[in-house]
Amino acid sequence: MLKFRANLLRGTVAELLLKEDQKALHRAGVKYTFDAPSGEALSSVPDRQRTVIALVLFGQCVAHEKPEAVKLLLNTPVESRAEFGAFAPLKDAMTKCSTVDFKADRFQMRGYLAEGAYRNVVIPTSG
User: Fold this and answer.
1) At what angle do helices 47-65 and 106-122 cross, to 10 degrees?
2) Which of 32, 60, 77, 120 is 20 to 30 A from residue 25's alpha carbon, by CA?
3) Cα separation of 42 and 106, whole Å?
4) Domain ranges of the chain
């Protein structure tokens, strides 16, 4: 049986949608992502889930802080020298946005950033 870790698959799908189907991401009345819990609701979820949620919010924060740098990263080939170099301009934002200790390889990090960029595109902003 083929199994996928949902958090890795979400990032890959988010990256594909960002590249291929921008117009489809703006249909009125359609909800494209889950609401991330915060405050009391976040403190009541198990530790593992809390870490996963924190990583989703981390990706969204970095994509908000450095949208063009994330876009450049997502336009590099996976596991390439260009991808490696594209992470450098993101280091300050990644430090600022990190709220939990975690280890992630470049593929995982790319997925979190892709999902963050996706969330920033589809979630309406106030103001």
Assistant:
1) 70
2) 77
3) 26
4) 6-122
